[in-house]
């Protein structure tokens, strides 16, 4: 029982404990000593237990707690420190690692012997635990004295490794673990006593390296070295530094190697970013992206140079096309068309090339997409030889989509090319102008059966719709649908004729019925139709009214074609002509010789039209009419007669009528539409805002309309004035720059 137990006094108890501690020290020092048996361990544990549970004044807990600490202090001062002080550099590091490992073993054993203190005495008095006391002794006595020396030795080894020497990485890992463990859960010792100096040394090391490399190396070589260094520093962390050091270490290296010399590097004369782009050094550009994306704002200058480069390449294409066009101006008109075709092709190739750079070298980064877009916007909005880019693109599409165009492509290639044209359209500010030119050319393809493939026509409309919205393509889609309906209508007309023998137009007649709103505007009701044709028109009108009561037909003779027989002396020939040309020739059935004035009054056409017609029939390749005097130009005093002697080796000939140059009309039409668009936009904005300043109104208007065209500030100002006179808006009486909406 408790009472029978003999009281152990301090001296005698401690003497027994001291033997156990000495045995432990001997084992650690590697002296011949037997290992602890479980009986030894139990005896030591029980002695402490007994000395702590005796009645006061024999409860020696406090004294034992102090002696526990003194055992460490004594061992460190007499054995550990002397052995460390006599060694240096790597030897000192090895000794330290060994001593720390031993110390941890000693703490483990002693804290087990004295375990009873931990459970009651320490817990009750909130004192530091035994394990902590053990580690603190090492920290205060060994670590505080040596950490600076250790740090310098470690940094010196790291620098040796950077210079390519082999070092003992495991040793460094063990030493640095001491800095971490000594913090007992906190990183402050590692960070303050080692990491800060190591980072400073790293910065200085790479600063020295970079200052030499930047002078000696080309940009790609320098980047290669920088990338290797970063890779090696990353490995260094995984081998022996603490993982938290990685971002700080890489930041230092990137700063010294890249941030400091960024501009010098990018602008190196024969090997900087410009040169890499010029020489298509894809791999180096990818490396440049990888490196510069790591430093703050590092990609901005790269993207800027990329934009400059693409802009200058594109501008060079424009100039090249300009020069080619002006060289060919003296020669034939068609060749200029070819030049423009080549120009658009080259722009598409340029876009393909640099889009691949953005996706591959620059990892699809938005900054580079933006640079590419801005660069293309610069030169895609320059015209070539008096044609705007909008017109060039429309002509390019026309060439691909019409029969007998200059581009001979497979279906896949056509699809792909159209896809690319639509992408280019995104960079063009006058999208409405493109739409109008495109519509004009689409109309010619559809009406004169020039379209090579219906699927392609619909496919590009789908692409345009995705790019520019439904409003952009609604008329064009209407045109394509119209033609299908017109074919059905013609079939119905033919059935009607076969069922009604009285309804006989006298000649074969094909009518294409179109919806007014979808198609470009054409002149109508201007020609005095020849008697032969009047009957046809009547018959068709009767048929159409039998189908629908509420639709009005407007005949557009300027788009019609006719096949007529010419009875010439050598032989009878079939002539393929326009309705206008046919009407002119049919006048000569009634008269042998007609003056210019007589022809004008009988046809009821404008002078411009008549001059064009007569030129095509009397001065061009096929001279169906003789002209007096026989000159190359038509004048109001000329006389014309049927050329009976005309012949040609073909039985059937097509007499071309050069089309009116529609460019001016297209531009006028677009301008008119723009005026309406600006009006509508201003009214929409003012309706919702009620009162708005001039600057603000203009900016919102530009933003609203920017998807279709870039409105001119002057034009907006003019429209505002016009809306004021039409009482949609009023000016503020006190502030002329303020507008009010009048409901």
TrEMBL record:
Belongs to the cullin family. GO terms for molecular function: ubiquitin protein ligase binding. Pfam families: Cullin (PF00888), Cullin_AB (PF26557), Cullin_Nedd8 (PF10557). SUPFAM superfamilies: Cullin homology domain, Cullin repeat-like, Winged helix' DNA-binding domain. It comes from Dillenia turbinata. Residues 388-618 form the Cullin family profile domain. GO terms for cellular component: cullin-RING ubiquitin ligase complex. InterPro entries: Cullin (IPR045093), Cullin-like_AB (IPR059120), Cullin_CS (IPR016157), Cullin_homology (IPR016158), Cullin_homology_sf (IPR036317), Cullin_N (IPR001373), Cullin_neddylation_domain (IPR019559), Cullin_repeat-like_dom_sf (IPR016159). GO terms for biological process: jasmonic acid mediated signaling pathway; ubiquitin-dependent protein catabolic process. Keywords: Isopeptide bond, Ubl conjugation, Ubl conjugation pathway. This is Cullin-1. The lineage of its organism: Eukaryota, Viridiplantae, Streptophyta, Embryophyta, Tracheophyta.
């Amino acid at each position: 029982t408790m009472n029978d137990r003999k009281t152990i006094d301090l001296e005698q108890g401690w003497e027994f404990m001291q033997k156990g501690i000495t045995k432990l020290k001997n084992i650690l020092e590697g002296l011949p000593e037997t290992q602890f048996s479980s009986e030894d361990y139990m005896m030591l544990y029980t002695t402490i237990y007994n000395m702590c549970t005796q009645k006061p004044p024999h409860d020696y807990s406090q004294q034992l707690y102090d002696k526990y600490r003194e055992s460490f202090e004594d061992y460190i001062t007499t054995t550990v420190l002397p052995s460390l002080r006599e060694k240096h550099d790597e030897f000192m590091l090895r000794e330290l690692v060994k001593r720390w490992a031993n110390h941890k073993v000693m703490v483990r054993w002693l804290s087990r012997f004295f375990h009873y203190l931990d459970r009651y005495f320490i817990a009750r008095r909130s004192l530091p635990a035994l394990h902590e006391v053990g580690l603190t002794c090492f920290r205060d006595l060994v670590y505080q004295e040596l950490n600076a020396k250790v740090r310098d030795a470690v940094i010196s080894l790291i620098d040796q490794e950077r210079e390519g020497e082999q070092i003992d990485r495991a040793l460094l890992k063990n030493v640095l673990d001491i800095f971490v463990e000594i913090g007992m859960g906190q990183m402050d010792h590692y960070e303050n006593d080692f990491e800060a100096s190591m980072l400073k040394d790293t910065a200085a090391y790479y600063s020295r390296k970079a200052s030499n490399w930047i002078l000696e190396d080309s940009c790609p070589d320098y980047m290669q070295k920088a990338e290797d260094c970063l890779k090696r520093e990353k490995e260094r962390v995984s081998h022996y530094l603490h993982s938290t050091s990685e971002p700080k270490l890489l930041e230092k290296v990137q700063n010294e190697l890249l941030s400091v010399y960024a501009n010098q590097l990018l602008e190196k004369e024969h090997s900087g970013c410009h040169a890499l782009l010029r020489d298509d050094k894809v791999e180096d550009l990818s490396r440049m992206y990888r490196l510069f994306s790591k430093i703050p704002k590092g990609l901005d200058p790269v993207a800027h140079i990329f934009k400059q480069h693409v802009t200058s390449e594109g501008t060079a294409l424009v100039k090249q096309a300009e020069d080619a066009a002006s060289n060919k101006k003296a020669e034939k008109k068609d060749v200029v068309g070819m030049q423009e075709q080549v120009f658009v092709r080259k722009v598409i190739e340029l876009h393909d090339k640099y889009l691949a750079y953005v996706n591959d070298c620059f990892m699809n980064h938005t900054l580079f997409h933006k640079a590419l877009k801005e660069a293309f916007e610069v030169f895609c909005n320059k015209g070539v030889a008096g044609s705007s880019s909008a017109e060039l693109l429309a002509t390019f599409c026309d060439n691909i989509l019409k029969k007998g165009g200059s581009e001979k492509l497979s279906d896949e290639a056509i699809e792909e090319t159209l896809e690319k044209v639509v992408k280019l359209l995104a960079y063009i500010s006058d999208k409405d102008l493109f739409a109008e030119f495109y519509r004009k050319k689409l109309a010619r393809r559809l009406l004169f059966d020039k379209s090579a493939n219906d699927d392609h026509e619909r496919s590009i409309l789908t692409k345009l719709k995705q790019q520019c919205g439904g409003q952009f393509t609604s008329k064009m889609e209407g045109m394509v649908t119209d033609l299908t309906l017109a074919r059905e209508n013609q079939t119905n007309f033919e059935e009607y004729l076969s069922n009604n023998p009285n309804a006989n137009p006298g000649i074969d007649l094909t009518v294409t019925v179109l919806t007014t709103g979808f198609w470009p505007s054409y002149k109508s009701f201007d020609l005095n139709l020849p008697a032969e044709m009047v009957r046809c028109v009547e018959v068709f009108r009767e048929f159409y009214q039998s189908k629908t009561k509420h639709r009005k037909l407007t005949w557009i003779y300027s788009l019609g074609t006719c096949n007529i027989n010419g009875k010439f002396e050598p032989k009878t020939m079939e002539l393929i002509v326009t309705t206008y040309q046919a009407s002119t020739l049919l006048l000569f059935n009634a008269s042998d010789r007609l003056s210019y004035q007589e022809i004008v009054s009988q046809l009821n056409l404008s002078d411009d039209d008549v001059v064009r017609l007569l030129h095509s029939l009397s001065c061009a390749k096929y001279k169906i009419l003789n002209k007096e005097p026989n000159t190359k130009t038509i004048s109001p005093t000329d006389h014309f007669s049927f050329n009976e002697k005309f012949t040609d080796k073909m039985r059937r000939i097509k007499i071309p009528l050069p089309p009116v140059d529609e460019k001016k009309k297209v531009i006028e039409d677009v301008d008119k539409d723009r005026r309406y668009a600006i009006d509508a936009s201003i009214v929409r904005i003012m309706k919702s805002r009620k009162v708005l300043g001039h600057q603000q109104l203009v900016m919102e208007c530009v933003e609203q309309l920017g998807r279709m065209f870039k409105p001119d500030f002057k034009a907006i100002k003019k429209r505002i004035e016009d809306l004021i006179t039409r009482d949609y808006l009023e000016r503020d009486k006190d502030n002329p720059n303020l507008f009010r909406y009048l409901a």
